[in-house]
Amino acid sequence: LGGFTALVAAVGLPEQVVGLALLNSAGQFGDAKAKTTESEETFLQKFVLKPLKEVFQRVVLQVYINTSNVDDYLVESIKMPADDPNAGEVYYRLMTRFMLNQTEYTLDSFLSKLTCPLLLLWGDLDPWVGPAKANRIKEFYPNTTLVNLKAGHCPHDEVPELANKALVDWLSTIAKKASSLQTV
Questions:
Q1: Sorted alphabetically, which InterPro entries does this protein's record hold (predicted)?
Q2: What CATH number does the domain located at 2-25+36-182 have?
């Protein structure tokens, strides 16, 4: 949800955004035939209905190809927001709004309004959001740089050196373009 939220913010505040980086971003295209897979439904049900440390740990272990970074600190940092007394209400409102407006809140509806360069840092081994989605985003939004990384759902944590280098290189490129436009 973080990447999709960043996309919505970039579209809503284009004057404040010079580039957008997404890492294995969630969100659906507006394909009427597309259905949520059984594994996604199972994940959501378990994540919402049973916010227990064991469930979080099991879910994180599913998406990390290199599980050496899955420790108590990581699990607690993911679990902590769910422990907030208002978490259920926030999640309910978020999901209700999304479910009632599925055709409005789609990747293509927001990508079609995006005006800045887009970087996709993509863990190709992600069992939930595979490389096909990154390729589809790039096809839909040509102003995209795609960096494929040998990682799961969290490339920034699994291969931080590679993810950081790709991000810094991309930021340097868009900073140069932005400064050259200002001097014209």
A1: AB_hydrolase_fold
A2: 3.40.50.1820
Q: Identify residue 103 by its one-letter amino acid code.
A: T
Counting other chains too, the contacts that 7-13 makes at CB distance below 8 Å and 24 or more residues apart are 7/107, 7/110, 7/111, 7/114, 8/105, 8/110, 10/114, 10/116, 11/110, 11/113, 11/114
The whole-number pLDDT of residue 177 equals: 83
For the segment 16-30, what is each residue's pLDDT rounded down to a tens digit?
999 999 998 877 788
Region class of 46: left (phi > 0), else alpha (psi between -120 and 50), else beta: alpha
Distance of alpha carbon 31 from alpha carbon 108, whole angstroms: 9
- Who wins on pLDDT, 11 or 71? 11
What angle, 0 to 180 degrees and rounded to 10, lies between the N-to-C axes of helices 72-83 and 87-100?
A: 80
Instruction: Please state, in angstroms and rounded to a whole number, the distance separating the CA atoms of residues 149 and 121.
Output: 7
* Four-point Cα dihedral 156, 159, 162, 163, nearest 10: -10
* pLDDT classification of 47: cutoffs 50, 70, 90: low
pLDDT digits (tens, 9 = 90+) for 2-13: 888 899 999 999
Residues with Cβ within 8 Å of 26's Cβ and at least 6 positions away in sequence, in order, are 1, 3, 4, 129
> What's the Rg (C-alpha) of the chain?
17
